[in-house]
């Protein structure tokens, strides 16, 4: 809700009832008008192009309309209402530096219990599904317990919010010991915390791992918040952080015949305004680094080493041993996963698949719109 409005030909200033204020340009308001001639009432897609808006656009009137904003534009003579709540959700009049973390992100270390939901609940209760997806969106990972210990059950996890992303590994892949493995994941070796498939562009943004058997000694799963590791690196070594964010690394995979995947992306990816977007960290798949200037290479490697030390810090990891029918999902652009080595009697059999975050976030947003108390 709005408390007051002032305007000039080129902008409007509104004061909200909570005491905050924000400015909006005339061109921004006209481009984002919510009337049915500007946006389709059903799908909310824009019906005009920027060239349809007069270059000499001006505001001739702006006033309160029941707590909302009513604006008249010249030379069209067009009057449009903007809900106060909509304006509050779309404020761009910010002072100061953009925060490092995206909105709605909470970083964590090994002291946090793993967020966990029940398979039956998330499949039958929209609120439980909403809460599980919200945990993935905020924290970057979550577990599911109580599922069936059946091959391909992980595909039903992906169906909860989106679609499987098929790769050269297939719709899903087996994670168990092989005699001649095409990937070190298919051995009993321990694996350093890593993000998957950094050699793809775009990288799969979600990974699901589902347990079918786990009677071997060892083999615990570990997850590490890469955003927290990046935060710590920036706090103690801003210059090293800038090197890892400012130069592309190279990643490569050619473990099977006919496959040669390559990507050139930074280990710490930032948006143009400096906000964390993604972490790519996978020592097994890092190709020779050839895009760092000679004079910066040693400092780059020092920052790379330190990021690895932070990721390997036992205090950073949340550890758990999956039981048959349990699974977990990670945001593969943020959360690294690791595995302790296993050997001896018994067996360990997981299945994995990839999916993409846009489907998860879309399903979550739709559920939150149906259940608005989730956002309170």
UniProtKB/TrEMBL annotation:
Keyword vocabulary terms for this entry: Dioxygenase, Iron, Metal-binding, Oxidoreductase
Database matches in SUPFAM superfamilies: Clavaminate synthase-like
Cofactor requirement: Fe(2+); L-ascorbate
EC number: 1.14.11.8
Keyword Metal-binding applies: yes
Domain Gamma-butyrobetaine hydroxylase-like N-terminal: 9-76
TauD/TfdA-like domain mapped to chain residues: 118-354
InterPro entries per the UniProt record, alphabetical: AlphaKG_dependent_hydroxylases, GBBH-like_N, GBBH-like_N_sf, TauD-like_sf, TauD/TfdA-like
GO biological process per UniProt: carnitine biosynthetic process
GO terms of molecular function: metal ion binding; trimethyllysine dioxygenase activity
Catalytic activities: N(6),N(6),N(6)-trimethyl-L-lysine + 2-oxoglutarate + O2 = (3S)-3-hydroxy-N(6),N(6),N(6)-trimethyl-L-lysine + succinate + CO2
Pfam families (alphabetical): GBBH-like_N, TauD
Statement: the UniProt record of this protein carries the keyword Oxidoreductase: yes
Enzyme class: oxidoreductase
Function: Converts trimethyllysine (TML) into hydroxytrimethyllysine (HTML).
Family, per entry: Belongs to the gamma-BBH/TMLD family.
Protein known as: trimethyllysine dioxygenase
Organism: Cribrihabitans marinus
